Amino acid sequence: MVHAAPAPRTKTEEFYPGFRFPEHPVIRTRDYQDSRLRACGVDPALYGDQAAAGLFGQDCFKAMRAAGHQVDGLVQTEQRFRQLEPIAVGETVTQRGWIEAYEEVPRGHRLHRSFEFVLKDGTVALTADVIGLVPDKDKWAAATKKAPQSAPSDPRDGFELVSEKTMTPEDVTLFSSDVGNLIHFEPDFAANLGYRAPLAQGLQTMVWMMGKLTEDGPPASFELAASFRRPVFWDDGASLWLHRAKTGFIDSMRALNTGGKVTAELTVSSLSYA
After folding, report:
1. Region label for 123, one of left (φ > 0), alpha (ψ between -120 and 50) or beta (otherwise)
2. How does pLDDT run across 209-243, given as a tens digit for each residue?
3. CATH architecture of the domain covering 20-272
4. What is the pLDDT of residues 7-33, one digit of tens each?
5. Strand order in the sheet with 108-118
6. b or e along 200-226 (b: 16 or more beta carbons within 10 Å of the residue's beta carbon)?
7. 31-59 as b/e, with b when 16 or more CB fall inside 10 Å?
8. CA-atom Rg of the chain in angstroms
9. Hey, how many other C-beta atoms are within 10 angstroms of the C-beta on 75?
10. Would the pLDDT of 71 be above 80?
11. Residue 173: which H helix or E strand, with range?
């Protein structure tokens, strides 16, 4: 079966700034966390009893679908997390969110959604910003033709190789299927949008990166942001590279494909294990 590309949506239909997603409880179960972390190439034991913050990014997409918003075909370009307090596995938090901005850009429309995860005492434990593109096929083609070409530099310079893996259709499907967006697990849908195979979520790569910040124990607080540069197919090879500041602090990471091109970049603004 060939799925048609989603029909264009307008700002007034779904994406007007100020729209608020319904508040609802979220509980990160042990089974869910362990299976999704493994799908990202992360050992669940690293997190102990702490909920992995990156996985709450999936709850942001679930909130969109629960609100009746179309997510099939959306392209995520950025993800930001700020953890103020750890959340425990099995702890109930309240998720609330809103649309921060919806604005025209050369390739379509930039959609910025903001979410908070709140403890029972009212403390905001985690914030998440999900930024993506609602693509316009004609604008995308025109912008691609106009894109300037610059001399490539080696993205590995100054970075240390810390991990390598191969994506699998099984892991990509497990990570993405409960969120929706057929581009991640339906080959016909991906082909109809011009891709040779389904794409892994950018968040799946980000959770892999965040796992490297957890090898000495899960951090108590942090602020970080990822940008997603290129698509990762569900059978691609990937390598992870990290950069340390002069103090030894990990301040950035890059994920590369087998062609040596950056697919995602993570910037760490702050990190505390206390």
Report:
1. beta
2. 999 999 989 999 999 999 999 999 999 999 999 99
3. Roll (3.10)
4. 444 444 567 899 999 999 999 999 999
5. 20-27, 92-105, 108-118, 124-135, 75-83, 221-228, 262-272, 250-257, 237-244, 160-166
6. bbbbbbbbbbbbbbbeeebbebbbbbb
7. eebbebbebbbbebebbeebbbbbbbbbb
8. 18
9. 19
10. no
11. helix 169-176
The rounded distance, in Å, linking the Cα atoms of 40 and 36 is 6
204 backbone φψ class: left, alpha, beta (φ>0; ψ -120 to 50): alpha
Count the alpha carbons within 13 Å of 28 in the hemisphere toward its beta carbon.
27
The alpha carbon of residue 34 and the mean position of all alpha carbons in its chain are separated, in whole angstroms, by: 18
Q: What is the token pair recorded at 153? A: 């530099």
Tell me what pLDDT residue 75 has. 81
- C-alpha 272/C-alpha 83 separation (Å) is 10
Note the pLDDT tens digit of each residue in 126-158.
999 999 888 776 655 555 566 566 666 899 999
Retrieve residue 103's tokens.
Answer: 């604005």
Q: Where are the domains of the chain?
A: 20-272
- Backbone φ and ψ for 174, nearest 5 degrees, come out as -60, -45
CA 218 from centroid of its chain's CA atoms: 19
Token output for 221 = 């607080």
Q: CA-CA distance, 189 to 181, in Å (whole number)?
A: 10
DSSP 215: T
